[in-house]
Every structure is written in C-alpha cells, then in structure tokens.
Amino acid sequence: MSHAPSARSPHDARPIQPSSLSSVNKVRRLIAVARTRKRALVLTHDNPDPDAVASACGLAWLLRECAGVKAQAAYGGIIGRAENKAMLKVLHLPIEPVARVRGKHDLLCLVDTQPEVGNYSAPVEHPERRPLQVAIDHHPARPASALCAYHDVGGPTGATSTLIAQYLRAAGLVPGPQLATALFYGIKSDTRDLGREVDRSDLESYAWLFPLYDKTALSHIEHPSVPAPYFAAYHRAYERARLHGGGSAVVVDMGEVYVPEIVPEVAEKLVSLDGLRWSIAAGAYRDELYFSLRLNDKRFNAGKLVRQVCAPFGGSAGGHGAMAGARIPLRGRMAEPMAQLLFAAFLRAFHLEPGPGAPLVP
Ligand SMILES: [Mn+2]
Asked: Which residues surround ligand 1, an ion (CB under 5 A)?
C-alpha cells in the first residue's frame, strides 16, 4: 500500500475540521477494553524512534486518565540517535527500558508496530508476550493484528503520534507541553516535516498540537550535540558508499556502528543525492545486521520489498511506501558477507546488475 503524498497536499486550503466522530468511537472502544484491566504496559518497537516514544507515552497517559488503569510505557533495545536521546532528556518522558520493568501486567499494548512484525521486546515476566490486546500503528495492517481485542492499524496516517493525538483530543484530554512536544515531534519526524506520506489527519493533529508544544525544547531536541563516533560513522559511510545503475542507486556497508539508528539516518542522507532512486545502508550492532532502504521511486513499495528480500534471512522487517528497514540476527556469522548478499538481492529486485559498483566519493 502506498501513501501517495499528492492525494493530501500540505498546501490544501480546506479548513481544519473538529475531531471526527470516528475518533470518539475509537477511543470509547479502546477504553472499554482497557477498563477491565488493572495494569497496562505500552510497548514500542525496539530501538524506538520519536514517533514510537511519543505514542507510547501518550497512550499510557490516556489509559491512566480515561480507563483508570496503572499504565507504564517501555521500550526494548536502545535509544542511541542524538535527537532521540535529547527528546527523552529534555522532555523527561515517562518511559523506561523494558529490561527494568517488573511485575505482571494484565494488558500489553503495542504502538508503532504490530504483533506479527515481531520487532519488540516484552518484559521477563511475559515471555509469551501475552496478553497482547492492543495494537495502534500507522504501518500497513498485518492480518494477525485483527486478533487483538483493540486494533487500529494501517490507514493513510503518516505517524502513530497522529492517531494518539486524535484519541486524546476525542477523549477531551489536552496534553501538557512535554507530551505535546513529543507528539508534535513524532509527527514532524515521521513525515519529514509534513513532506512525505502525509495525510490530512497528520495536518489536523499537527495543527492541534501547535499551540501546545514547547518551542524552545523542540529546538534543543532537533539540534543536539553529537558524539565523535557520529562523524567517524558518516566519514566511513561516505567512503564506502557504492553507486549502481549509472548513479540511480547507492548501497553502503557501514561496518560496525556505534548505535543502530545511524543506519536509517545514513540511508536517509544518501537518498538525497541528485538523480537517485533508492539507497540502502547496512551496519552491524551487537550481533545483528541492521539495514534501511529509502526510495524516491513511487513504483516500488519499500516495506514490501524489504519483507520479500529479507524473508530468507530471518529476522524482522517493517516499513511502508518510501522507507523500510530490517534487522537480521547474525548468530556469530560475519556481517560483511551477509550485507553483500542482501545488497545483491536488492540489486536484483530493482533489475540492476550485481557487482562492485563505483565509489560515491572517487
Ligand atoms: Mn511511526
């Protein structure tokens, strides 16, 4: 499913509608499911991005306020990207690593991913990852999400934060500056400043949050200081990047990376090259190979491609129209040959000759 941005132009001048009735119905159904429980845990996908972090904090708050349950937000993996770290620090967001979560929960919720994708970690007391009963995600719907007691997945929305903002609004809740800033940044970063895969609902939530968010805090988050390995990672990425298909594609094996989030960031940077149709970056982190695909070509769907290409390699894959990623467990195998196999598979999928390519930086 592709979310063509042309259908909903940010320059669309139609007036912004009040919160739709369907949001009111949705939040009612969600609360009905949660109200019968005592202790909820809201999980993001591993190595969460701002959209996932904001959504988890927003949903936990909604559940506490409206369903009268204890609710905690948690994430697996790490938060390594400088902006994302700054977001947690500047906004003091109530979210913790899932490894620190103790005790039994009678409701597990997932945001910004779905049960079937498998790219999330549950706490030690829930090795079966049950009872997983709520899934809220803007990525394309997976069939197994229908098994959740409450699921709001798929659809044209560009960010999960948009959905959570709609729920808050429909429930009559107004987030404080910290949560508002998180949700605002979630929408802004997932839609690349409302320029990609953006839906009318994103514009509405963005406009609703605009007067509520802390402008100074967001400026600090978007312009963080970065550690020295950040520059080393970029330097190595530029040095190792290879052009294919007469400059229409670029692939780069970044080697060992200091944080997994640098992989999508580099793929994103490289796709801005003049005349480029797609970019792939790969990097190894803690015995897993991370890689990210970015597309400028609307004839392809990044999420579908990544799932197809990665299926034989195992691991988990997710994504949508223009952006997708996956991580593959290495289990002691070498990262470099694995990355080369993946690159060859992608080149074939894009009907390009496999081969060494030409250096991006001659
Ligand atoms: Mn998202």
From this structure: 51, 112, 160, 190
pLDDT in tens, 102-112: 999 999 999 99
What pLDDT digit, counting tens, does each position of 238-257 carry? 999 999 999 999 999 999 99
The one-letter code for the residue type at 4 is A
- The segment(s) of the chain belonging to CATH 3.90.1640.10 are 5-222
Q: What is the CA(27)–ligand 1 centre distance, in A?
A: 19
Choice among 1-10, 53-62, 144-153, 229-238 with the minimum mean pLDDT: 1-10
Q: Cα(119) to centroid of ligand 1, in Å?
A: 13
For the segment(s) 228-359, the CATH number from 2.40.30.20, 3.10.310.40, 3.30.70.270, 3.40.50.2020 is 3.10.310.40
Instruction: Tell whether pTM > 0.70.
Output: yes
Q: Report the separation in Å between the CA atom of 162 and the middle of ligand 1, taken as the mean of its atom positions.
A: 9
68 Cα–ligand 1 center, Å: 27
Distances (CA, A) of 257 to 47, 105, 315: 14, 35, 18
Question: Under CATH, which architecture does the 5-222 domain have?
Answer: Alpha-Beta Complex (3.90)
Helices (H) and strands (E) in the chain, counts: 11, 13
Distance (Å, rounded) from C-alpha 47 to C-alpha 259? 9
